[in-house]
Write a structure and sequence with these properties.
By secondary structure, the protein is mostly beta strands. Helix content is about 10%, strand content about 60%. It has a single domain, classed as Beta Barrel (Porin).
């Protein structure tokens, strides 16, 4: 159970942790930095989950800090590198059975916005992970993984809507992880933002993806609501709350972020 939960968290990092989205949204948008421009995004997440199985109460807490740096190669093409650091603790009937922390697998992505017209834009984002996490601690797969996401954005002032269709192919170094986890993971998510004022946006997000746990018949799904406040045109802070909509998703998570553009 512990290893499988860690892999769920990892896959979310692989698919979204390095994304150039309007944090705290999990769904990515089609925007790019512009040639010669950069962005640094610092994020934090606290998650909590409680389950009861075979008469045993299992409580899991997770903390994650992430840094994603993106650089504009062309006006419509960015390269993004994300480094996540995780802390995961699990208790069974109040007894700690797992307490691990460390760097997870580093993600590298390209985002290419290939179409933009009349408020519609489309982008394609391929990427891969570098096996920098310790797979024995459940912080990585031990192998290079890869995937891609199709992104669509529609602007209808003061609203903006997004859709992501993603695929990830995972490989595992440990035989036990390979036997218990799916290799091919799909992801679908929808999001929207509403510009309340020049500095303040409200955001909402829902999504579902294939459960990597072969023994589970329920796919993880979530709903999220949050706020983005622009201190300056190049400095944003955000706060979001994510709730699990299915039993296989983490019960609740609090997300925070700071985004700097230069």
């Amino acid at each position: 159970m512990i290893s499988n939960l860690a892999k769920v968290i990892l896959i979310m990092v692989v698919m979204t942790g390095t994304a150039f989205e309007a944090h705290s949204l999990i769904t990515d948008d089609t925007s790019t930095n512009g040639k010669g421009k950069f962005q640094l995004e610092l994020t934090g997440e606290f998650s909590y989950d409680k389950e009861k199985s075979a008469g045993i109460t299992v409580k899991e807490k997770g903390y994650e800090a992430g840094a994603a740096f993106s650089a504009g190669i062309l006006d419509t093409l960015d390269i993004v590198c994300g480094i996540p650091y995780q802390w995961n603790r699990t208790k069974e009937d109040g007894v700690i059975v797992s307490d691990e922390d460390g760097i997870s697998d580093i993600g590298v992505e390209l985002k290419w916005r290939f179409f933009e017209q009349n408020g519609f834009s489309f982008a394609f984002k391929p990427g891969f992970t570098i096996p920098s996490g310790n797979e024995d601690k459940g912080l990585g797969t031990g192998r290079v993984c890869y995937g891609a996401t199709f992104i669509a954005t529609k602007e209808i002032d003061p609203f903006t809507f997004y859709i992501n269709l993603g695929y990830t192919h995972n490989k595992y170094k440990l035989k036990e992880d390979e036997d218990s986890n799916e290799k091919n993971i799909w992801h679908i998510s929808l999001a929207g933002t509403y510009q309340i004022s020049e500095k303040l946006q409200v955001v909402a997000n829902i999504g579902v993806e294939r459960n990597p746990d072969k023994e589970s018949g329920t796919d993880p799904s979530f709903a999220l609501i949050g706020l983005i406040y622009s201190i300056t045109p190049d400095l944003d802070v955000d706060l979001g709350f994510k709730e699990g909509l299915s039993s296989s998703e983490t019960d609740a998570a609090l997300l925070t972020g700071l985004t700097m553009r230069f």
